[in-house]
Amino acid sequence: MTDTSLEKAFFIDMDGVINKGNCLIRGADLFVEKLLARGCRFMFITNNSYHTRDDLQQRLARMGIDADREKFYTSAMATSSFIRSQKRGCRAYVIGGPGLHEELEKREIIITDKNPDYVILGETGDYDYRKITEAIHLINEGARFIATNMDITGPGDRGPIPACGALVAPIEKVTGVKPYFLGKPNPAMMYWARKKLNVHSRNSFMIGDRMDTDIVGGMESGMTCCLVLSGVTARGDVARFPYQPDYIFESVSDIDPDLIVTKWDR
Fold this sequence. Notes:
The radius of gyration is 18 Å and the shape is globular. Helix content is about 35%, strand content about 20%.
């Protein structure tokens, strides 16, 4: 019997790698077709906790990439997996979008403002003074503070928009409590994603456009890291970081799954 855990596996960031907003990055669909044709294991991995997996699947389908919903892994999923591993049947006060609510409810986490074990914050379109104040009170009363990711900004139709890391700021400032971030670059997210795909870090590739989330998170997880220059990082920026990617490509269209090898085999 073949040990599928030793096959190459690809974990692919979305914004800046596969798409920019609602526009597909040139050649991204062809790269996904290569992975499917070769039977490679792969998963789209995103820090955005707002959207459900169905939302993400439909979004890519509109751009011409047909992928099963099981091919998507979000920071909301990492958050729910982590909390379930820490305390089953716990209670949480949640500020976040439908993707976060769906994943927490799936893990039987009770969403409430009555004596919660956790305050959980993710991307949301419904962020107001009352919710911020309630989160502050609950943390001061003993609830543990968790956030889905530390990204300050995300992509919007008219330019950058506040992401989870920005929404954390007023709560952290008032309480003096820093949240535990579950999304990239936390290796915990990489661990849960690999566990879902049933692959080992030695045989896994992380493909992303951000040095401070995708690349450092992949590196700290023991994965081989591929930086693409189709997103936020320019080639001239790379040398300023103390850690370096294993590969640099202009875009995913330049990646041949058959030719790249892991850093453990180079």
